[in-house]
Amino acid sequence: MRAWIEKQRYIIDFTISSLLRRKVKNFGLLALYTLIVFILASTMFFTYSIKKEASLILKGAPEIIVQKIVAGRHDLFPVSYIETIKNIRGVATVESRLWGYFYDSLVSANYTLLTPPNNADSADSVKSSAKTTVVESESGDHHGTGSAKPLFEFNGTALEPGTLIIGNGIARLRNIGKGDYMPFRAFDGNVLNFRIAGTLSSQSELVSSDLMLITEDDYRKLFGIDKNYVTDVTVIVNNPREVSMVASKIKKRLPEARPISRDEILRTYDSIFNWRGGMMIVIFSAAVLAFVIFAWDKASGLSAGERREIGILKAVGWETSDVIQMKFWEGAVVSLTAFFSGVILAYIHVFFTGSIVFEPALKGWSNLYPNFDLTPFVNLEQLTTLFFLTVVPYTVATIVPIWRAATIDPDSAMRFTGE
Amino acid sequence: MEKAAMVKALNLTDLCLFTEARYTRNLSQADLNTAFQDHPLSLEHFPSGSFTQPPEGITQRHESLD
Questions:
Q1: ipTM exceeding 0.90?
Q2: Contact flag A54-B27 (C-beta cutoff 8 Å)
């Protein structure tokens, strides 16, 4: 056994020095190989972490959201519909949501304006006595935040009329912060000036970068939305197994409503960055194509110099199996180095530099892009697949032509000239 | 986890990944014809559309709610 290990050591030694003899060619090869692994591994790390993070973060999303659809588009949801939904058996609570988008032409960015739940409730507060009881009895389960304490205190500052709490992305983009004022042109052309009461933390940017928390009255003043309408409603169901049943009952009673369950939200994010998605298939097909060309080049033959080297080795007493072992180690050294450096670089790229290579593509045309650090989640199954798709074919591809060359007579192998 | 707490407290539904269009900001809330939002033959033209897929509820339904 010891002798075998020693022999392999000598062969590896020889292989490395022979690789170093053709520095430019081999380093070029290594760089290209590393690049392919890097791109593939970065894509894998990024998409897997986003999906994983989305599934953890969005677990707390509303069980059912009900929108009103008119002619295929969202429409404001009449407050009167809330009672209809509440009357459905199995529904625990119905809460209204007020949210919308605001395009800031100054920086060409879209903001998401949102009224925190406690604020939006006042539209149906008249009939909320029954609801409050339910919320309290259910508070442990669904709304750990409870309804008594103000939800949106930020550094001790509560959200008051005339104030905003803004996401960190907006603060960065507009270069504003607590105490500054932000003017908005309302629906009727009037300019409303809001004071910034605080900013949301930078850790939460993945969900809150473009958020603006605003009070209900200010929201209605800004967009001219009547008290009888909200954007949509969230429904909490007593028994989580009845969600789809309740959703179909809502659809039956309110035919123009569109219920979206939490499960659908989670599945939407599970299929985000799916490999079938346009850009993903471009990345994968380019990388796979590059790799195929690469392996083909290796498999299709040896240079005259390599052939002569094999001839000399055989002439000085190497056996065919030794030559094949040497070439196996050559393939293994190159592909393992490329694989590990590619994977390590990809890990640094995705989890420490915020996917700087992908950023321009991910940003698209948006000016407001969240700066977020992904929690490192690594899928071993994917890494193993990447290993078997890159290292194994490459190593095998290097062995086949060597075997062909190593079985011919050393004399005729050495006669190959013209390098 | 702060982000999860915020989602729960604010009743949020989506990640803030692409802010360029309303249907990419809130992917799961996109309505049924956002791809043709400007006029009937206007195809989806935001770059982030090439990373994402339509909301799951539109393409694959659990069951038909109609």
A1: no
A2: no
